[in-house]
Amino acid sequence: MRRYVLKLAYNGTNYHGWQMQDNAHTVQSEITEKLSLLLKEQISITGCGRTDTGVHASEFFAHFDIDELSYSEKDLLHKLNNFLPMDIVIYELYPVSSDFHTRFSAISRTYSYYISQIKNPFKLSTSYYFNVSLDVDAMNKACGYILAYTDFTSFSKSHTQTATNNCSIERAGFEMVDKELVFTITADRFLRNMVRAIVGTLIEIGKGKLSAEAMKKVIEAKNRSGAGYSVPAHGLFLEKVEYPIIDK
Questions:
Q1: Looking at the whole model, is its pTM more than 0.85?
Q2: How many angstroms separate the CA atoms of 153 and 193, rounded?
Q3: Which domains does the chain have, with CATH numbers?
Q4: What are phi and psi of 221, to 5 degrees?
Q5: How many CA within 13 A on the CB side of residue 168?
Q6: Segment 170-184, tens digit of pLDDT
């Protein structure tokens, strides 16, 4: 049995997230179906995480096991891309050691959230249109407080099955990129809905409804009701997944 990794990207607009589920069209189910048809056996694919409905991924990894490929890696990559819809692309396909796991071997993940403050019809599905003036300096000051904490219960979706709500965040902040306000955050792991809830809270700070220092109280309360709203999913991208050196 040999393990292979797929490096891919997708526009999540037409999907109910990555994770396969009953009666829903997902990225995982789309790739599983096409790969299984090409390889003429049922393939089980494991992703590096899960994204919610409408969330995008600029970089995503998944792995599968098989006794032997019926095509060369190059030919399978070509055929799979021809078979998949235009909103999913496979960039690379390569073998790895059997102990490599796209989810559990990851050491960090980076998400970005895009906010467009100028009306742009070409960004409708990939950026949150929010044309209210924001105090970006106050928002970035609040981001500095985020780095001092590890328990992010206040930004977690309720009733999840995670063993801990602790995350180690190494980067968080806003910058202007091509006329969009972009929030980027890097951590060893993320809770469900965490990034969208953090951004919603930061927007409340940017509007002046909360002070930058209020972020500390929000986090320390460990109560989702004290944080801001969850911003829409379509502005969120999984941008990067970091691994140790992969033994192929």
A1: yes
A2: 11
A3: 2-104 (3.30.70.580), 108-241 (3.30.70.660)
A4: -70, -25
A5: 3
A6: 999 999 998 899 999
